[in-house]
Every structure is written in C-alpha cells, then in structure tokens.
Amino acid sequence: MNANNPIVLIGGSGLGPWVWERITPLLRECGFQSVTPQLRTTGGDATPAEAVDLDAWVEDVCEVLSDLSEVTLVAHSFAGYVAAAVLERQPHSIGRLIFIDAILPKPNKSWFEVMGSGVAAFMTGLAQDGAIPWFTREQLDQLYPGHGISDADFAWMRPRLTGQPVATYRQAAIKDPMRAEAARVAYVQCLVTNPPVENLSTEQLGWERRTLATGHWPMVTHPAETARVIMELAGS
After folding, report:
1. Residue 99's beta-bridge partner residues?
2. CA 232, CA 98: separation in Å to the nearest integer?
C-alpha cells in the first residue's frame, strides 16, 4: 500500500467522516493512508436532505476516486449500497472492496422495494425535513441489544449524527448482480448484530470472510480490532 492506493472509508446511516476518527490514526501508524469522503448532508455538510439521493452519494465517492486507482474501499452498513454502485460505475478505481456489516443491494431494486411497502411507509412517516432521524438512546438499546456503544461513545456521536435522506432509500444501487470476480471483495460480519444485517447467499461464498465479536458500529466500540481486520484485508 502506498500514497496512490489509500484506504477509502465510508460510514453507514447518519455517519460522516468523523466516525472513522478512532480508526485513521491506527492505519497511519502502520503506514496506510486513509481517505474519508464527505457525503452530502452528512457530518458538517449543510446540503439539505431533500436535495440528496443515492446518486448524489455515489457521485461524491466517485469524485474522490477519480484521481486514484486500486484503492481499498471500505463500506459500513447502508454504505454497502453506495460502494456497490461505485464498483459498478467505476470498477477501475477499486482494487479491494470491504463490506463491514453492510447491507448488500439487489439488482434494480431500492432498499424500500426490498424491505416492502409497509416498512417504506413506516420509515417515510418518521421523516423530518426529508430525512429519517438517527436513533434515540432508547431506540438504539431496543433495536440493537449488545451494540456496545457506551454512554461516553453516544455523547461523542450524538452532536455529529445526521438523518438519512429518504431519497437514498428510493433508488436502486446496481443493475447487475455483484460477482466475486468484479473486484477482490470481502465481507466482515459483526457477530453481535442480531438479527444479522446480511445472510450471504451461496453465490457470494467466494468472497473472503472475517468476523468481529462486536455490535454493528465496531469503528466506534472496537477501533483497534476493526483497524486490524481492515489492514489484513487491504494487504492480502
């Protein structure tokens, strides 16, 4: 790995570049360069959520990758949709794709279409100003038991979290099925996430697999272990 082949890190729903702050110093100490793209309306970006869809996020990442090649692209949670779309549109930029407890898209189907009209109606009903708010502490504890996010972690996260633009759930990410030969793909499953985010099909068994004995946000709760897995996969 050198300066022309960095590790590009994308966080899931509600997360901006800041969520990798506990990871990037560990990568740097081991000689890995990292890039944390700023996606519109996440973190400190002031773009209104109503103006942001999945295509916008894919464009944001593609722009970052336009001058790079053979990067290791790391995608957490919903960022699996973003990364899969980037791989389909700009495969020459990606040498390694690592999904961390990520949602994997289905061809020509949006997240809402996969989840069904009932979920779509419920989620849309929660929206405020075009975005679905992140969890309250009570919701987090109920929906993700064993998440491992301490009170101090949550206090660090809370002011930086943003809502998920509703339109990102309404667009399909990919046209064709993802294939192992399309890039060197790996999937890291967080074992404490219950139910699992993904149950990989037999078509995807060719992907390299790793596990973390953590909840769904390992970059927050277990940065050293997460960085170690990323570096192992990036260097393999």
Report:
1. 75, 187
2. 11
Distance CA 176, CA 210 (A): 25
Give yes or no for a contact between 94 and 75, defined as CB atoms under 8 angstroms apart: no
Among 3-17, 36-50, 175-189, the least confident range? 175-189
CA 185 to CA 3: how far, in whole Å? 21
Cα 226 to the center of its chain, rounded Å: 14
Token pair, residue 225, equals: 């272990």
Backbone angles phi, psi at 173, to 5 degrees: -95, -40
Nearest to 103 by CA among 30, 183, 12: 12
Q: Is residue 178's pLDDT more than 90?
A: no
What one-letter code names the amino acid at 170? R
- What length is written for the chain? 236
**Per-residue pLDDT at 204:** 62
Distance separating alpha carbons of residues 236 and 230, to the nearest angstrom: 10
Whether the CB-CB separation of 7 and 25 falls below 8 Å is answered with no
Return the H-helix or E-strand segment holding 137: helix 137-143
